[in-house]
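Section 5: illustrative case.
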């Protein structure tokens, strides 16, 4: 079987296929695959070097091929591109995927649904300290120790 990755216009040299294929083989849930692919440094670099359109086109090209005609390299590349999209601008990714069917890449839609592109809003509150308390008069007087240090310093 000829891998279709040879005809896809993304640079796959940066990907650590051996490691990614291992995570794919062991994955029994899309969240497991997503978590391990997303933590892979080679995939992060791969995503950095490709545009949203390049990654999306690779996903569409692989999705258009019947599943039984895909090599393992094709499947790993498809999931690498899907997860690579999660490093990109959410609006651009949404626009690139809109109206396109990637369901033949079994976990692609579920992975995209797991992705939380918008940070959680955390409510902040400002705390102010109470007014400073008045110090007792004996604490505000100059220290006799500091006067002594000054005198000793002059003598020496």
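Designed sequence:
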């Amino acid at each position: 079987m000829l891998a279709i990755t040879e005809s896809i216009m993304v640079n796959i040299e940066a990907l650590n296929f051996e490691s990614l294929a291992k995570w794919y083989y062991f994955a029994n849930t899309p969240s497991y695959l997503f978590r391990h692919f997303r933590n892979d440094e080679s995939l992060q670099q791969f995503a950095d070097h490709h545009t949203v359109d390049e990654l999306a086109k690779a996903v569409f090209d692989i999705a258009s091929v019947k599943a039984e005609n895909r090599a393992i390299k094709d499947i790993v590349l498809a999931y690498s591109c899907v997860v690579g999209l999660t490093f990109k601008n959410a609006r651009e990714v949404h626009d690139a995927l809109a109206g396109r069917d990637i369901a033949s890449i079994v976990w692609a839609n579920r992975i995209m649904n797991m992705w939380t592109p918008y940070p959680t809003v955390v409510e902040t509150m400002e705390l102010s300290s109470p007014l400073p308390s008045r110090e007792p008069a004996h604490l505000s007087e100059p220290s006799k120790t500091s006067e002594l240090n000054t005198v000793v310093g002059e003598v020496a």
